[in-house]
Design a protein that fits this description.
Blueprint lengths: L3 H4 L3 E8 L5 E9 L4 E11 L2 H10 L11 H13 L7 E12 L4 E5 L2 H8 L3 E3 L3 H5 L9 H10 L6 E6 L2 E7 L12 E8 L2 H11 L8 H5 L4 H8 L29 H20 L8 E5 L6 H10 L3 E4 L10 H14 L7 H4 L9 E3 L7
Parallel strand pairs: 1-4, 4-6, 7-10, 10-11
Antiparallel strand pairs: 1-2, 2-3, 4-5, 6-12, 7-8, 8-9
Helix pairs in contact: 6-12, 7-10, 9-10, 10-11
Bound molecules: adenosine-5'-triphosphate (ATP) and ligand AH0.
């Protein structure tokens, strides 16, 4: 039985997301009934230390049973550190750390123990958001689109628009805000665009021992290798009809294309590849979005943003232009989705993950140790 406050009406949900770029855990409060956003609240960030990041990097591609014993406690502690800073949360949406994603094969793996977290925090924790979708034939990603739909309503959008998340991987959500519900036919189309920051981060780590190309400073000094860019765009993924999703390192073979290049030219070329992948994505949208609202760390890379603006026939703005927080959108998304799971509302549908029918994924764990 749900407590009366959780059954209906707005709930303060605390969402936590640790993304594929392995930089740390974002956490943010959102007041929502799972459909309408009522308010946004506090947020916090807990960076992974270089040592922690190296441990996670080493665990990438691993499935349950293959992961070293030190990895789960690391992920749990990072979440406890950041989630303990909040007051007033009624439920928690806990994404976990994606280590591997192979929806047509072994499934999808988000490391994290929601049961332990619920007992520790004394709050209901909703987690394992992606598995049910994958079991039912979906991609299990992206899942933020149902939240993007709520954001479009929150900002009063009346024309088709798109949210673009530039994290480790990029994903886009095309939205027709005239529809009433996100799972209604024609309301959404969503899919992963291609690599975004992950290859740039990997390059920076290998060549410079730095976590990212801050402000695109290195890419700015380089020249894009057109030949490498064209070979990259030959990748069949770009012509595949969505929904479709990617593992963090799905295209890692293609980065041999930049091996011979100078550091600056390689950074410029990888940045251009991420932007070009977004241009390819436009072909799949039901109608060209007039406006692209960009969230995720890539929006802070001026070279990436300039390349997008040059390539796209759309207004390209960071989500801050409409009053949203581009660093916290995904954390807020998993707070919002947590309320949907709790209330049995769908979190994905054929147009967002390719799942056969709308599905409410996620496990609910209670502070007494029980789960459903
Ligand atoms: N000032 C900046 N200049 C260039 N790149 C930046 C800057 N700030 C952040 N980034 C990039 O953004 C990344 C973090 O993005 P974000 O937090 O959106 O990723 P994520 O949530 O881990 O990924 P995903 O959405 O794929 O799960 C950093 O690793 C870095 O590559
Ligand atoms: C399997 C997985 O964790 N996928 C992430 C990743 O990071 C970006 C992109 O690839 C997206 O598909 C997804 O995250 C966002 C939050 C989503 O599910 O909407």
């Amino acid at each position: 039985m749900l407590k009366p406050g959780l059954k209906s009406g707005p709930v303060w949900a605390l969402g936590a997301m640790s993304g594929t770029s392995l930089d740390g855990v974002d956490a943010a409060m959102v007041q929502t009934d799972g459909e309408t956003i009522f308010a946004f609240g506090d947020s916090a960030y807990r960076a992974y230390s270089p040592t922690e990041e190296a441990v996670l990097r080493d665990a990438l591609g691993k499935w349950p049973g293959e992961v070293g014993q030190e990895v789960l406690p690391l992920v749990q502690q990072a979440h406890v550190d950041v989630l303990s800073r909040f007051e007033g949360a009624q439920i928690v949406g806990f994404h976990g750390q994606t280590l591997a994603h192979d929806p047509q094969g072994r499934g999808t793996h988000q490391l994290g123990d929601g049961e332990a977290l619920a007992m520790h925090l004394g709050l209901p924790v909703i987690w394992d958001f992606r598995s049910a979708d994958v079991r039912l034939g979906g991609e299990g990603a992206p899942l933020a689109p149902f939240f993007h739909f709520a954001c479009a309503k929150w900002m009063g959008a009346d024309r088709p628009l798109a949210f673009l998340n530039l994290g480790g991987v990029g994903n886009i959500t095309w939205i027709d805000p005239s529809r009433d519900r996100p799972d209604q036919n024609g309301a959404l189309l969503a899919f992963d665009t291609g690599p975004a920051n992950a290859p740039i981060n990997d390059l920076m780590m290998q060549r410079r021992g730095q976590p990212c190309d801050r402000d695109g400073a290195l890419a700015l000094q380089g020249t894009v290798a057109q030949g490498a860019l064209e070979l990259f765009l030959d990748e069949p993924y770009f012509r595949k009809i969505p929904p479709k999703s990617l593992d963090r390192d799905a295209f890692s073979d293609l980065y041999t294309l930049v091996h011979e290049l100078s550091d600056a030219d390689a950074a410029a070329t990888l940045t251009a590849m991420s932007a070009a992948a977004v241009l390819q994505a436009m072909e799949h949208c039901p109608s060209p979005p007039e406006r692209l609202l960009v969230c995720g760390g890539g929006r802070k890379n001026p070279v990436m943003m300039a390349m997008l603006r040059a390539a796209l026939d759309a207004v390209v703005d960071p989500v801050e232009a409409v009053g949203l927080d581009g660093d916290m959108l995904e954390a807020q998304a998993f707070g919002h989705l947590a309320v949907r799971v709790l209330r049995g509302l769908p979190t994905s549908c054929p147009a967002t993950t390719g799942v056969a029918a709308a599905v409410a994924g996620g496990t609910v764990s209670w502070p007494d140790g029980s789960s459903r």
